[in-house]
Amino acid sequence: MAWSRVKSILIAMLIAVNAFLILFYGINAWRENRYKDQYNRDLLTAASALGVTLDEELTRPEVEKLLPIYVYRNERKDQEIAKKLLGECEMSEAEDGTVSYLSDFGRVFFAKDGQTELVLLNAAPKDEREAERQVKTVLRKLGQKYESIEFVEAGVARVNLTAVGMPVFNSVLTFSFSDDGLHVTGRRVLHDPQQVRSAEIRELPGLLLSLFGHWDEMGSTDKTVTGIDLGYLVKNMNGKRVTVLPVWRVSEETCDWYINAMDGSVISAE
User: What is the pTM of this model?
Assistant: First the structure.
């Protein structure tokens, strides 16, 4: 058999194999999309039966995978932060583990779980632009990543913090400006975020059904869902390590609800 004929046969076989693989993956993708479409239709039917108003677009988020993370308390890094904020300062520790730093430029309180209070004797900003610069400076010294800075009223800014690029819903810092200085309160994200290898998040429709079931048990299902977001909640603390869980935040007209994205349990933001 001539080599050219053998080569033609091999090329034809490779084309046939590739065509089979494309067809195979195409059929699987079609089946998966059909399954998801049916799952969403069942979800919307269940929601309607329970009196829950839910827009189908909210059930199809772009982000589908997220792992839990650990963050850590690090006294050495906290001392470095305090010096950046206050200069040379005195340190003391309370029985509950809260560490205080004090200098002529203000005071800093760091609790074990990330709860934070700062009083900085800054000059009052002349306008919102200068206030925003002060907020960014403090966030940089704290080593915090964030989504946005929102001035909720005159002289008060609210900052939602992030970890590994995702919002941490119960890590928010509030900045209040006055003639006496800058007062910062809230929960920061602790140090060294590390993703944990564990079960991936479950599909959203099943988790929403768990929430609707919870509402049904409460006897309160006449609700309109206004938003669904994926992010984190700071939850369990074990020694110096804090677990940050992936959650779905489901917003409705009266409040926000949080669903553990791995097991479907409804949890509080604390």
Answer: 0.80
Residue 87 Rama label (left phi>0; alpha psi -120 to 50; beta): left
CA distance 2 to 151: 79
State the pairing for strand pair 69-72/223-238: unpaired
d(CA 265, CA 259): 6
For residue 3, what pLDDT is reported? 56
Dihedral (CA of 24, 25, 31, 35) sign: positive
DSSP 8-state secondary structure symbol assigned to residue 61:
-
Q: Judging by DSSP bridges, how do beta strands 52-53 and 223-238 pair with one another? A: parallel
Q: In whole numbers, what is the pLDDT of the chain averaged over residues?
A: 83
Q: Single out the residue of 138, 218, 204 nearest to residue 173, CA to CA.
A: 138
| Residues 6 or more apart whose Cβ sits within 8 Å of residue 242 | 70, 71, 72, 73, 113, 114, 190, 234, 235, 236
User: At 55, which amino acid appears?
Assistant: D
Q: Which pLDDT belongs to residue 32?
A: 44
